[in-house]
Amino acid sequence: MKTDNSRALFEQAQAFIPGGVNSPVRAFKSVGGTPLFIKRAEGAYVYDEDDNQYIELINSWGPMILGHKHPKIEQAVLNAVQNSLSFGAPTQREITIAELIVSMVPSIEKVRMVNSGTEATMSAIRVARGYTGRDKFIKIEGCYHGHGDSFLIAAGSGAVTMGTPDSPGVTKGTAKDTLLAPFNDLEAMRKVVENNKDEVAAIIIEPVAGNMGCVLPKEGYLEGLRELCDEHGIVLIFDEVMTGFRLAPGGAQERFGVTPDMTTLGKIIGGGMPVGAYGGKKEIMDYVSPAGPVYQAGTLSGNPISMAAGLTMLSLLNENPEVYTSLDEKGAYLREGYEKSLKDLGLNYTINSVGSMNTLFFTDKEVHNFEDAKTSNLELFRKYFHAMLDRGIYLGPSQFESLFLSTALIDNDLDRIIKANHESLKEIHGK
Ligand SMILES: *Cc1c(COP(=O)(O)O)cnc(C)c1O
């Protein structure tokens, strides 16, 4: 496969942009080689600057759940553009999208729009602290909540793969208010809470983790967190930046039937534009300025173009519940294909999947938390990643990422992915 243009661009980029990219994981550091510079995409396919075509399994890390260039979303953006790009003043569309989010996401009674998932989680923690009058919060090892200072502690994918789980620049003072517990371990969580009695403002968690690879909550785990938070007056925050509008119209909280106090959203909510949101119980959200004392603001928040894309995306998802049946079917089909290959090749690797999220872990251990995920053979993943890329399949460039399926994938695409997976596994094991 010819990648001369991407190579040349990567060279050029490194002169002007740190590491040549505007977000670290894009640099392919953990898998080696040259990142693909992307020219365009359509439906389930993405094309690089050397005009190679790939089947999309990154989908902008989630937002392109309906495939690239969805005609309705594209049209909504083109229409909105004609009325200017930004006002910094309220618009009617912001009410419409807020109302829709409230109707879709079980925990959300009021919502504030921001510009990224990072902003959403930073703000949610601030509000939880303001509301409870407590300073500390608990995060889960291997969960990622964006690059806010207080979250860059055992932070999953990007941070892990870069080998800097604790970033320089985060002060000890900040880090000391972030407490940690492993995923799927209620007992450990209970201990942390009890050791910090009346000091914990919030527990924040990806209800299905996607940033240590895909890791599902064990039966009763989310329910247990809910009870623990109720017992101790702790704000339970589900970070559904990845799972929101993906695992169900109402996210993982709908799919697993556990309602947090607050929810953070991003990715799909903007339809591909930079958008995030946080919301929750009225009582908590009314602490947000100007209704309440907790300050949070944004010059471009609720931007009309972003809202047009997001509103169209959410409306499409809300009005077409069959999207989720179809995504679940595609996910199950892919998983079956992968399982068959593993069996036929005599390999015992672990697949974690739910709906349209899926990770093949190169370990024979079951993966229920970050420690388990880290038993994966990263060298094998590196080879596998490139073997898949050579066969035209564009995966997230790290073992600690999930695949994100879109509705644009047709059966033939899925069969191509399954075949490529089989051949790649065979190749890297010299079978
Ligand atoms: C991507 C992600 C974020 C950060 O969102 P950005 O828009 O990249 O700032 C936060 N939480 C989770 C769970 C994510 O997957």
UniProtKB/TrEMBL annotation:
Listed pathway(s): Porphyrin-containing compound metabolism; protoporphyrin-IX biosynthesis; 5-aminolevulinate from L-glutamyl-tRNA(Glu): step 2/2
Domain of life: Bacteria
EC number: 5.4.3.8
Entry's localization field: Cytoplasm
Enzymatic class: isomerase
InterPro entries referenced in this protein's UniProt entry, alphabetically: 4pyrrol_synth_GluAld_NH2Trfase, Aminotrans_3, Aminotrans_3_PPA_site, PyrdxlP-dep_Trfase, PyrdxlP-dep_Trfase_major, PyrdxlP-dep_Trfase_small
UniProt keyword Cytoplasm present: yes
Modified residues (N6-(pyridoxal phosphate)lysine): 267
Catalytic activity entry: (S)-4-amino-5-oxopentanoate = 5-aminolevulinate
Keyword list, A-Z: Cytoplasm, Isomerase, Porphyrin biosynthesis, Pyridoxal phosphate
Cofactor(s) annotated in UniProt: pyridoxal 5'-phosphate
HAMAP family (alphabetical): HemL_aminotrans_3 (MF_00375)
Oligomeric form and interacting partners: Homodimer.
The family this protein is said to belong to: Belongs to the class-III pyridoxal-phosphate-dependent aminotransferase family. HemL subfamily.
Official protein name in the record: Glutamate-1-semialdehyde 2,1-aminomutase
Species this protein is from: Algivirga pacifica
The encoding gene: hemL
